[in-house]
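Morning. Coffee machine broken again, so started the prediction first thing and wrote up yesterday's gels while waiting. Chain of 141 residues, entered below exactly as on the submission form.
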Amino acid sequence: MNTTTIRRSLTVVALAMVLVSGAVAPAAMAAPMAKKPTLIVRDLPAQVRLVPGETLSLVLSTNKTTGYSWSTKVSGDTSAVKVSAGVYTAPEANGMVGVPGTTTWTITAKATGKAVINVLATPPGGGEPTTQKLTVIVMKG
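Came back before lunch.
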């Protein structure tokens, strides 16, 4: 092979690599990213409006050292929303005992309607829970 043929071969290989990398990059960029919530609610009682497919994060201060436990119960149009199990996140290590962390629920709007998410705080050993409410109105998109 002479130098001209080698140069042409290298040029064709380089051009093919550019074309392939250009075809792969958009596909990689099209990969779904973690969907961020539309809204974050930190205080109750509250009322929010969503459209189907939108999500919100309900983030409440939780102190595991008190013995209280959180639970949720949906009333109203229960098919309007989906509520995840609460996920506890411990506080950052700061050397202080009894510092609260957070519990986070993800609420997804599924269909039009009005749902009430009752957040129950049950005292240690049972007893009557206190209830706070988040009203979610799901509107047409």
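Strands lie at 39-41, 46-50, 55-62, 69-76, 81-83, 87-89, 101-109, 113-122, 130-138. Going to sketch it on the whiteboard this afternoon.
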